[in-house]
Amino acid sequence: MTAEQHPAQDEASDVQHVPVLTEPLLERIQLPTDGIMVDATVGHGGHSRHFGRQLGPAGVLLGLDVDQHSIQRARTTLSDLACRVVLVRENFARMDEILTQQGIDTVDVILADLGFCSGQLEDTSRGLSFQTPQPLDMRLDDRLTTTAADLVNSLGQKELADVIYEYGQDRASRRIARFIVQQRSVKKLTTTTELAAVVAKALRRGGKPPRIHPATRTFQALRIAVNHELESLDALLDAAPDRLKPGGTIAIISFHSLEDRRVKLNFRKNKANGLYEILTKKPMTAMPDEIERNPRSRSAKLRIARRTPG
Ligand SMILES: C[S@@+](CC[C@H](N)C(=O)[O-])C[C@H]1O[C@@H](n2cnc3c(N)ncnc32)[C@H](O)[C@@H]1O
């Protein structure tokens, strides 16, 4: 999918992504001037730019992103840094292989700011939002072959319910799946608003309107499934201890409890194995002034661990 095919993507990519929790990150993580940092989700380069300023000409910043548009944005944002900037369009699940390809053994910092950028949410070709009718796509990496529409229109009712339950934690998953299967037997679901309407219908009840849109959890579930988000996170977390220098730091910002729980358990396991010291007993969250400036930071949780010399 190219920008020519989707003019909306050009406009959306102009939307500025404001990096979250930058202050606590910079307070806790300092790079030596000849250090090496992996920004596993370089996005628009917001975090990378802050850290990249700490690096001199002998330093390296390796930025990964699955989205070509993010890589292009980061290239501009990071163009005037003194360090060597290497940007690779790859899933962070492959960090290990990419470090080997780049001839890098161990690094000082691994940072991942999970999920999607503001521009991706605004990009009407991507189907991450149900505020306007958009194709039911949800791929952050357009080289993936399965879209949300493929899942919604082809999974069996039980499989669909399992996805919605497991990744969306929606207790009404079976009812939602039943309504989707009924609807698609009449007409395939092709847009985000069509899907949102079916989910809303499945969950329609009297009484107070719900706090969040009834389709929010189903959308989260499909996005996680389409992008293999949890498997990728596990692969990154598993590769990290061998790729961090002694004293090196891993910092992960997550936006929902399924991610945060995985990070917490991985850090605990590596602490028990003597590989990590955990620097954040509880996840750090945004202060009220950051939430006011950048509402996206409301659900962000930051966990940091340091590689022990062992
Ligand atoms: C929240 S944004 C990162 C923003 C960035 N920290 C900044 O300050 O501009 C998340 C980015 O990670 C990318 N992404 C999500 N999952 C990924 C994965 N498994 N591997 C690589 N990039 C991923 C998305 O395409 C998006 O550009």
Task: Name a few traits of the molecule.
14 helices, 7-stranded mixed beta sheet, 310 residues, binds S-adenosylmethionine, 14% strand, alpha/beta, disordered N terminus, 44% helix
Mean pLDDT: 93
Strand content: 5-15%
Global structural class: alpha/beta
Q: Ranges with pLDDT <50 over ≥5 residues?
A: 1-11
Number of strands: 7
Cα-atom Rg, whole angstroms?
20 Å
Spatial strand arrangement across the major sheet: 3-2-1-4-5-7-6
The helical percent reads: 40-55%
Description of the molecule:
This protein has 14 helices and seven strands. With 310 residues, it is an alpha/beta fold. A seven-stranded mixed β-sheet has the order 3-2-1-4-5-7-6, sandwiched between helices. Strand 1, helix 3 and strand 2 form a beta-alpha-beta unit. Helix 8 packs across helix 9, helix 9 packs across helix 10 (192-202) and helix 12 (229-243) runs parallel beside helix 13.
Describe the SSE topology.
Blueprint: H1 7-13, H2 22-28, E1 36-39, H3 46-52, E2 60-65, H4 68-77, E3 84-89, H5 95-101, E4 107-113, H6 118-122, H7 148-154, H8 157-168, H9 173-186, H10 192-202, H11 216-227, H12 229-243, E5 244-254, H13 257-272, E6 276-278, H14 288-293, E7 301-307
Parallel strand pairs: 1-2, 1-4, 2-3, 4-5
Antiparallel strand pairs: 5-7, 6-7
Helix pairs in contact: 8-9, 8-11, 9-10, 12-13
The structure holds S-adenosylmethionine (SAM).
Describe the structure concisely.
β2 (60-65), α4 (68-77) and β3 (84-89) form a beta-alpha-beta unit.
